[in-house]
Write a structure and sequence with these properties.
The protein has 333 residues and is an alpha/beta fold. The chain contains 8 helices and 15 strands. It binds zinc ion.
Amino acid sequence: MKATTVECTPRSVRWDENSPTVKAMSDDINYNKAFDLVPGSAADVAPGVRAIVANNPGPFTFKGTVSYIVGRGKVAIVDPGPDDDKHIAALLDAVRGETVTDIFVTHTHRDHSPAVSKVKAATGARVYAQGPHRLARPLHTGEAARLDASADLDFRPDTALTDGDAVTRDGWTIEALATPGHTANHMAYALKEAELIFSGDHVMAWSTPIVAPPDGAMSDYMASLEKLARRSEPVYLPGHGGPVRDAPRFVQSYIRHRRGREASILRRLEKGAADITTLVRAIYIGLDQRLVGAASLSVLAHLEDLVARDLVATDGTPSISGTYRLAEPLPAA
Ligand SMILES: [Zn+2]
């Protein structure tokens, strides 16, 4: 069985079947893995939106990073993608004869932002993002190496956006939606005219994203999902994979999925204290060995959130090597 996702899908990883809560919730994400784009050329994916996929497929990137071109004539690019010369050439080829006025970046992982400097150099476009890469919390010992591998620490926007900021040009308006969680600086972008959201890695049709400390924070991630669930745009165009349809309902299923994961962690802790290795083994049954590290970080993200909410206790700061137990209930007043 080939597991291609980090967060489990019903097909790649089975849940703890002994958990009634999880059983009720485990199959509730209606994933869609359909994807038609091929690297090298742009295709229309929504009114006024073209897309090009980079040739960087993988367990975290699915078929590759999708870059979007918004408008005609004076255009914006959302997520230029990895520092891949072929992808950058295809992107510039697709906008030949047009003016790239603006570049929007959803977040500063290496599969989304490193192409910015070359695309900016070629076009003179202004670059927008929430800000440089930053952590959801301070680093623990041993976390620096992983950060170097995944984050684009060189990226700087020309203009830092805050939630609700909007940029309007000929024929399009893009509004910034702060959606921290996958990274602290994650932004989604609403395209007003097409009633859609560029959702980056926050919400994707093919899988849930990894929420891994120190880049990611589960409490932020859940709050960002709740925020999108209150919006009405029916379609999301994500950083990987095809469009999300019926998006508000899909976001609700994402929320239930995470709550199901949280419930299964709490149920295992009801049986006694456990470390993360034990929790991963109990929750992700039949997990591909290559994904154990990512699953462990995802469980750590949940535990950080549960400790912050006083539902779980550990000694000192929550860490990957810590032991976790249910928090003592407060004595009745
Ligand atoms: Zn990504």
